[in-house]
Amino acid sequence: MTDFINLYETYLLEVKQASANTVASYIRDLRQFDKYISENLHCSVEQVTADQATVYFAWLTNSGKSSSTVNRSLASIKGFYSFLVASGTIEGNPIRAIHLAKAEKKLPQILTGYEVELLLAQPKCTDAKGYRDKAMLELLYATGIRVSELIALDVDSVNIPAGFIRCTGSGKSRMIPLYPAAVHAIQTYMTQIRPSMIADPSETALFVNLSGERMSRQGFWKIIKHYQQTANIQKEITPHTLRHSFAAHLLENGADLKSIQEMLGHSDISSTQIYAQIVKQNLKSVYNKFHPKA
């Protein structure tokens, strides 16, 4: 089966052009499936039946794997078998008809207004790194853009006089406004700090690392985890936490879903509607905590 998995990995990378992280996840699921059916069911990929595959998914569940993990594994293996059918290796997909219970979709965690202010106050504007980090965090909360979009911003993506950024994600460009504190932090960084940080005068990246090159996802991840610790915020904070908080706070303060959808760059309004659920959940929590008869 190893040869088949290697062929599938090449297909995902070169034909489907899936991301390296996605491919690694699929291949990890397949290798675990291969190991289980070989050691416990004593069969190969060509021989496995729907009943045997069902035994494997039951084993995953009984091992304590979450429903989302089990469903992801099912999707990985289904895709693999579809590839084998299309390539003529096997005649039919033995798990085509297997369907598992839908995973319960967890609502994303958001920060309170106080926690956001606490996080934004952590970078100290006493050196280049502090000014840069302040500008990045302010911009992220001001716009709700993804971390991939943040690090992809160029200098000409920012219109300081108009108070907007131009962001490109999923092949589409959108204009997102900035609040005054974010404008000030970005302008200060761009005019006073960035020129001395860049390694090459022709560098177009808005945010650069200490080597003067474009900031990486991993680099920004470390930055936000550091400030979570210095702020002593117990919630788990990721770059996406500020995106979720941006959307939920706008909705709490009266923004309409369509406008939030536009700023987030969601192609489907259903992706934005999850923030309405968060707001309702928060209202219920406040009610239960403070109403004298709750």
Please characterize this protein's 3D structure:
The chain is mainly α and 294 residues long. The chain folds into two domains: 2-86, DNA polymerase, domain 1, CATH 1.10.150; 113-290, hpI Integrase, Chain A (Orthogonal Bundle). 59% of the residues lie in helices and 5% in strands. The chain is built from 13 helices and three strands. The chain has helices at residues 2-15, 20-39, 50-62, 67-86, 113-120, 128-143, 147-152, 180-197, 217-231, 239-252, 257-264, 269-272, 274-290, and strands at 158-159, 164-169, 172-177. A three-stranded antiparallel sheet has the order 1-2-3. A hairpin with a 2-residue loop joins strand 2 (164-169) and strand 3 (172-177). Helix 1 runs antiparallel to helix 2 (20-39). It is globular and about 65 Å long. It starts with a helix and ends with a helix. The mean pLDDT is 88.
Top keywords for this entry?
three-stranded antiparallel β-sheet; mainly alpha; hpI Integrase, Chain A; globular
Largest sheet report? 3 strands, antiparallel
Please, how many helices?
13
Write down the CATH topology of the largest domain.
Answer: hpI Integrase, Chain A
Shape: globular
In round numbers, the mean pLDDT is 88
Please give the alpha-carbon distance between the first and last residues: 59 Å
SSE string: HHHHHHHEEEHHHHHH
Q: CATH superfamily of the largest domain, please?
A: Intergrase catalytic core
If you compute it from the alpha carbons, what radius of gyration comes out, rounded to the nearest whole angstrom?
A: 24 Å
Q: Strand order across the biggest sheet?
A: 1-2-3
Strand content: under 5%
Instruction: Tell me how many strands there are.
Output: 3
CATH domain class of the largest domain: Mainly Alpha
